[in-house]
Hints:
Blueprint: E1 4-8, H1 18-27, E2 33-34, H2 57-62, E3 72-76, H3 78-81, H4 88-94
Parallel strand pairs: 1-2, 1-3
Amino acid sequence: MVPIVLIRGLLRESGHWKPLVEALQTRMPNQVILTPNVAGNGSLHFCQSPTQIEQMLPALLEQLPDEYETFHVVAISMAQCSPVCGRSNTRNKWQHLR
């Protein structure tokens, strides 16, 4: 089974996934669901927050178990969504992903 990895935004911690994790575990009780934190957030609040997106990856990867070769990654960031979600041409661009 391929684990699902949920990553929540630049300034949020993994606890914000709790309702979704509970819903997924109800429907798929054997599914491995991982919710790593970006450095500076959640369980890693004591770490220095990265100043660039590329600097977030090492802390995220360290939280993933070595026993899996692949993961399904779901990530959201409202910071990236807010300037583009309202544009009508953007909605059509992502419609095929539904």
